[in-house]
Design goal:
Chain B: One of its GO terms (biological process) is mRNA processing. The structure holds 2 protein chains of 2 kinds. By secondary structure, chain A is mainly α. Chain A is built from 5 helices and no strands. By secondary structure, chain B is mainly β. Classes of the chains: A mainly alpha, B mainly beta.
Chain lengths: ~100, ~1200
């Protein structure tokens, strides 16, 4: 609970000072977190970053392809497909 | 601790290949990316062989490559997308034979990040612009042009970003000279991220989007976006556009969208065409398994074009488009041939197909035909309603083909590649070898191999024939100066000389003018058309008309040594006198009036070849019995005057002066080297200063136990030196740098160049009484590979403590083993189906084994005899079990009898890891280890990924638990367990009662077994999470670890903690200590850290040269083999690290990555010097070399000598 209130405080501070700039930065750097980030969003970002990093590192795609008995092309394809929704649908939003 | 990292064998895996006229000549070349290295290959159109032109480390990770050519140009450039956050345009400069960075434009952060471009590259076919894209959102377009001086220019980037869009692929459209267009395959996740019901996720569409670069307005617009197949993965450019001269269209333009099971032709405002991807007509093929295209290539010929697409099974399909102007009439697909699954395909205009395999050897194929008139079924979009697009969401009926052996292609060349190295051992098992071999388990699936790597050059013997006696020397000679090939082979015996003539057969000839009743000391083709023979009693000068001029030795003396070249002859007499002859302009051999008394018996003599356009070589090197080498002038002004003298540690046995190019010393001209072979087997190589005749820059090397014999030979029309001792070595120039490599062959007693029609670049040698003619085919390689095929992907192998066999486990996921396949086929036969036996019996090495769903495994245990390189026994595993770990355990409960324990699991799924049951299979060794007898198997609850013999019992890492088992009658008995490991135990090492446990994600923990209380306790771990892939113990407290991201690091435990733990008899102290950072009470300290850039699969602590220091050798997945050498002195550390610092500023990476940030990719570099970077010092231009050397207070020669010494004394390479 403490953590939530702390982050709330940060966000409210920023609201007056750097909010517009921050929004711009968020739009520019996809995957950057913010104070009100939900757990699901955070995990989804993490997974997308990881999946993109796997596709981007040739040794990691080879490694997975060997372990899984698939071709590298298939591994890259499935990893990229997974980026759409790596952690399942978002949780139901509370109305409050 | 300070270490020096050196790559012995660079990565051989090819992640991408592009083709183009990079040198600007009318010849196509291939640039391949080895992940961290760029290599330029040149296929020889005549012979169909591929040779490497250059290869360079880029100190960064190459993610994409593309070739482009400016409109109207004749030369291709390469664009590189890497993890440097920069776009790079490279030009190959054939003059200096190097890649030149033309442009380097920064656009983002370093690293292979999600939104930093570099992952995909697409170029406009007319070379006007390039698009570089990331995995998500970011796409940048650069405009390429020429300036007034015809230099390539690059614009600032134009953005074509689309937020929240995952990019699957991009390609440049062929639109002729209209505005450049790019097609991208994108998926937008905005809605699926917002919808908790998952409905939006299911209905998300994959969009084919066109981006147009408006050259007039200088910006990029989203031109068109339409949904396409949900499982599309790849786009292929279709030719289009009009030529200015005619109004004929090259093609319809647009793209091929490769989807799972289908290929769709698509273009803006055009009708779609869809065809199914034909699948193998194999009885065991699952019809519901999707097939995707993994790589594609388009080839344009005059007025026509076709595509070759490759499926993930390796099948090539030929796709053609029938079109009328811009309108497509039909899309056709047919089976072409089956080749290994490739990461890239390149078609050369000369009719070759280069297949850069994703694993294993790469191939060059030659097209025999283009599959035009065969009976292969062809599937056309016209045979389906609405060209196959009546309902795009419904799959077209399956199309089939019958796989068969190659029909359209033939193999022209094979490039060896040891990638992936999955496990390795370093030891000396081969007889008559003084250096250890590296045994590697390589490859994937049925193309896996077990390879023995030996340091040295491969020798290819073409002729071997027995001689009547044992000759002591052999020469070959031409008859005339301008002859292309050699005419005679001259063999010298103790009491005579034999002359053989080289023709269609090799036979003895008598009337050559050579003296056959005495041994020969030297043979030379001299002047325009004369021959010369030096024998102990004199010199015979055989003129073209067979007249012989003979010079006789004064009575009572003999010639003991001689050296010759085309115009000069020097002989040493038994009276320690030198006699000098020179050919005059009439072709007469004239003796110099004075003889030079040396004062000590002459043992060896040498003069260099006459330099082009000169009369003579001005220096003679004389090795005397008083352990000196003297340089004597042959200059007409100062003939036979001594110039300089060098003392030796032993008498010289042979001397050889040769002018050889070594770019590290002199970039443009050959350097004159004086090689001095000593009687104790040491070779000295010194540089002879051409101006003052002084000997400088001496480097020594131990070659073998016998006195050295040096012979000047020709290798690829360049001078080289053969050094014969107890091993034969070749010193040659390759890619402008000097190499010194042993030959892997029998020892030669003598050797010489050999050139004949059948073997223009050969060598001839004698071993005992055998005459051998041989070639050295693979210059530039340092490791000779001998390989043996395996059935499945090797997983691990181990040695046996007493015999020399290797025990290997192999396993393949998602395939049917032969037994399961046979059962399945029997079932089908019983159901009355007819089975196409020919298809079923196709060789799995080419076609792979029948695919099966996840959780199906084929696996076996193999016993290998590494000396004979053959399989001794093969034990297949049944019940869908796959082996994951193996250990030889001397169970003390059985009196120390050795048992083989194999950890297996049934129905294993990789992610998330699960199995129906794990097993520990126990085998007894029979037939001296050549076979195994099954004892029993013990069930476990998870996959046993690591096994280890521990104090007469078995330590097993089963999932998260470390257990110790005792052997029982019916199964293994669990004695003690510790379940507190992070994710899964992947490695175990032990010394004493300590066990080092490597966890898949949580680095290495130190555990101790305390017998009195039967406790297994963790007392230390790492403060960082590490995805461990290989561990080796350096000493009791120190470990070397490789992780999954290409790092290697050294961790050490405080010796106080170590002693304290060992002194605690029960472990109660550890048990009650407070944990630190949510882990063990003690932490190891990181001593050294280095990013290799390749995934490390094994580490060994070995000594690579006889009597040399122990070093750490590691092998990596992409085929890298490297070493970490501990520095012996503080001075060396200071010197080399300062050199490294200078090199960092001088040598900028070809992909624009900062070397320091690359080597510190995940963790800053610590305590390791990058030897690969330091060694590029040899390639720097001379002024830079001397300025760096000056800063270091050394000479350039001293720096090079130090670098060479670090390499040779530790690795011998």
């Amino acid at each position: 609970m403490k953590r939530v209130s702390h982050s709330f405080l940060m966000a409210s501070e920023l609201r007056y000072t750097a909010n517009t700039q921050l929004e711009h930065l968020h739009a520019r750097y996809t995957g950057t977190g913010h104070a009100d980030l939900s757990k699901h969003d955070w995990v989804t970002h993490q997974h997308r970053d990881t999946l993109a990093s796997i596709v981007g590192h040739p040794t990691l795609t080879s490694f997975l392809a060997i372990a899984d008995g698939q071709s590298i092309g298939r591994i890259k394809f499935e990893m990229t497909e997974k980026m759409l929704q790596p952690c399942g649908p978002p949780p139901q939003k509370d109305d409050d | 601790m300070h270490l020096y990292n050196l790559t012995l064998q660079p990565p051989t895996a090819t992640t991408q290949a592009i083709v183009g006229n990079f040198s600007g000549a009318r010849q196509q070349e291939i640039i391949v990316s080895h992940g961290t290295r760029l290599e330029l290959l040149r296929p020889d159109v005549q012979t169909g062989k591929i040779s490497t032109v250059i290869a360079t480390d880029v100190f960064g990770s190459i993610r994409s490559l593309a070739a482009f050519r400016l409109t109207g140009g004749t030369k291709d450039y390469a664009i590189v997308g890497s993890d440097s956050g920069r776009i790079i345009i490279l030009d190959y400069d054939p003059k200096t034979s190097s890649f030149v960075k033309l442009h380097q434009e920064t656009y983002g952060k370093t690293g292979a990040r999600r939104i930093v471009p570099g992952q995909y590259l697409a170029t406009d076919p007319k070379g006007r612009s390039v698009m570089i894209s990331s995995m998500e959102k970011a796409k940048l377009v650069y405009i390429l042009n020429r300036d007034a001086a015809a230099n390539l220019t690059i614009s600032s980037p134009l953005e074509a970003h689309k937020a929240n869009a995952i990019i699957h692929h991009i390609v440049g459209l062929d639109v002729g000279f209209e505005n450049p267009m790019y097609a991208a395959l994108e998926v937008d996740y905005t809605e699926s991220d917002q919808d908790p019901t998952g409905q939006a996720f299911r209905s998300t569409e994959k969009m084919l989007t066109y981006y147009e670069l408006d050259l007039g307005l200088n910006h990029v617009v989203r031109k068109w976006s339409e949904p396409t197949d949900k499982r599309a993965n790849l786009l292929v450019q279709v030719p289009g556009g009009q030529l200015a001269s005619s109004d004929r269209f090259d093609g319809p333009s647009g793209v091929l969208v490769c989807c799972e099971d289908h290929i769709i032709y698509r273009h803006m405002d055009a009708r779609q065409h869809r065809v199914p991807i034909p699948r193998r007509n194999h009885p065991l093929e699952d019809p519901n398994r999707g097939i995707i295209i993994v790589t594609a290539v388009m080839h344009k010929m005059k007025g026509a074009f076709f595509f070759l697409l490759q499926s993930e099974d390796g099948d090539l399909y030929k796709v053609t488009i029938e079109h009328e102007e811009e309108e497509v009439r039909s899309l056709k697909i047919k089976y072409f041939d089956t080749v290994p699954v490739a990461s890239s395909l390149c078609i050369l205009k000369s009719g070759f197909l280069f297949v850069a395999s994703e694993f294993g050897n790469h191939y060059l194929y030659q097209f025999q035909k283009l599959g035009d008139d065969d009976n292969e079924p062809e599937y056309s979009s016209t045979s389906y309603p609405s060209f196959g697009m009546s309902d795009p969401s419904v799959a077209l009926p399956h199309a089939f083909f019958r796989p068969r052996a190659l029909e359209n292609l033939v193999v022209a060349d094979e490039l060896e590649s040891i990638d992936p190295i999955i496990d390795s051992k370093v030891l000396n098992v081969l007889p008559n070898s003084d250096a250890p071999q590296i045994f590697t388990a390589c490859g994937r699936g049925p193309r896996s191999t077990f390879r023995t790597l030996r340091h040295g050059l491969e020798v290819e013997e073409s002729v071997s024939s027995e001689l009547p006696g044992i000759p002591n020397a052999v020469w070959t000679t031409k008859r005339r100066e301008d002859d292309e090939y050699d005419s005679y082979i001259i063999l010298s015996f103790v009491n005579g000389t034999l002359v053989l003539s080289i023709g269609e057969t090799i036979e003895e000839v008598q009337d050559t003018g050579f003296l056959s009743s005495a041994p020969t000391l030297a043979v030379q083709q001299i002047g325009a058309d004369a021959l010369l023979q030096v024998h102990p009693q004199g010199i015979r000068h055989v003129l073209a008309d067979r007249r012989v001029n003979e010079w006789r030795v004064p009575a009572g003396k003999t010639i003991v040594s001689a050296t010759t070249n085309k115009r000069q002859v020097v002989v040493a007499l038994s009276s320690a006198e030198l006699v000098y002859f020179e050919l005059d302009l009439d072709g007469q051999l004239n003796e110099y009036q004075d003889r030079k008394a040396m004062g000590s018996t002459v043992l060896a003599l040498s003069i260099a070849e006459v330099p082009e356009g000169r009369q003579r070589t001005p220096f003679l090197a004389v090795g005397c019995e008083d352990q000196t080498v003297r340089i004597i002038s042959l200059d007409p002004e100062t003939t036979l005057e001594a110039i300089s003298l060098q003392a030796l540690t032993a008498p010289a046995s042979s001397i050889c002066i040769a002018d050889m190019l070594d770019a590290s010393i002199n970039k443009t001209q050959p350097t004159m080297f004086v090689n001095i072979g000593l009687q104790n087997g040491v070779l000295l190589r010194t540089v002879l200063d051409p101006t003052n005749g002084q000997l400088t820059d001496t480097r020594t090397r131990f070659l073998g136990t016998r006195p050295i014999r040096l012979i000047r030979v020709q290798i690829q029309r360049n001078p080289a030196i053969l050094a014969l001792s107890s091993r034969s070595w070749l010193n040659y120039t390759h890619q402008n740098l000097m190499h010194f490599t042993p030959l892997i062959f029998e020892n030669f007693d003598y050797a010489w160049s050999f050139s004949a029609e059948l073997s223009p670049e050969g060598l001839i040698g004698i071993t005992g009484s055998t005459l051998r003619i041989f070639q050295i085919p693979k210059l530039g390689t340092k490791l000779k590979q001998d390989s043996m095929p395996l059935s499945y992907t090797p997983r691990k192998f181990i040695t046996h403590p007493t015999n020399h066999y290797f025990y290997m486990i192999e396993g393949d996921h998602r395939v049917l083993g032969p037994e399961a396949a046979a059962n399945r086929l029997d079932e089908l036969r019983k159901q009355g189906q007819t089975i196409d036996e020919e298809v079923v019996d196709l060789p799995p090495e080419v076609f792979g084994r029948p695919k099966a769903p996840a959780g199906t495994w084929a696996s076996c245990i193999r016993i290998i005899d590494p000396i004979e390189a053959k399989t001794v026994a093969l034990i297949p595993l049944d019940c869908n079990e796959a082996a994951f770990s193996i250990a030889v355990v001397p169970f003390s409960a059985r009196g120390g009898e050795l048992h083989l324990v194999v950890g297996t699991a049934a129905d294993t799924l990789i992610s998330p890891r699960s199995c129906s049951s794990g097993f520990l299979r126990t085998y007894k060794f029979t037939e001296d280890g050549a076979n195994l007898e099954f004892q029993h198997k013990t069930e476990t609850d998870d996959v046993p990924l690591a096994l280890l013999a521990f104090q007469g019992r078995l330590a097993a890492g089963v999932g998260k638990a470390l257990r110790i088992y005792e052997i029982g009658k019916k199964k293994l008995l669990r004695k003690v367990e510790n379940k507190s490991f992070g994710s899964a135990i992947v490695s175990l090492n032990t010394q004493g009662s300590r066990i080092l446990v490597g966890d898949m994600q949580e680095s290495v923990s130190f555990a101790v077994y305390k017998p009195p209380e039967n406790r297994l306790l963790i007392f230390a771990d790492d403060s960082q999470p590490r995805w461990v892939s290989a561990v080796a113990m350096v000493d009791y407290n120190t470990i070397a670890v490789g992780d999954r991201f290409g790092n290697v690091f050294i961790n050490r435990l405080d010796s106080k903690v170590s002693d304290q733990v060992d002194d605690d008899p029960t472990g109660a102290g550890i048990l009650h200590e407070k944990g630190q950072l949510m882990g063990a009470p003690h932490k190891t300290k990181m001593l050294a850290h280095f990013h290799v850039g390749d995934l490390i699969t094994s580490i060994h602590k070995v000594s690579l040269v006889a009597g040399g220091r122990e070093i750490l050798l590691y092998t990596c997945l992409h085929g890298t083999i490297g070493i970490l050498v501990p520095f012996v002195s503080k001075e060396d550390v200071d010197f080399i690290s300062t050199l490294e610092q200078h090199m960092r500023t001088e040598q900028s990476s070809l992909v624009g990555r900062d070397q320091l940030s690359w080597r510190g990719y995940y963790v800053p570099v610590k305590g390791v010097v990058d030897g690969d970077l330091c060694e590029t010092f040899a390639r720097l231009p001379a002024p830079k070399q001397s300025s760096i050397a000056g800063e270091l207070d050394r000479t350039v020669g001293e720096v090079l000598k130090k670098l060479e010494q670090l390499r040779t004394t530790t690795s011998g390479f």
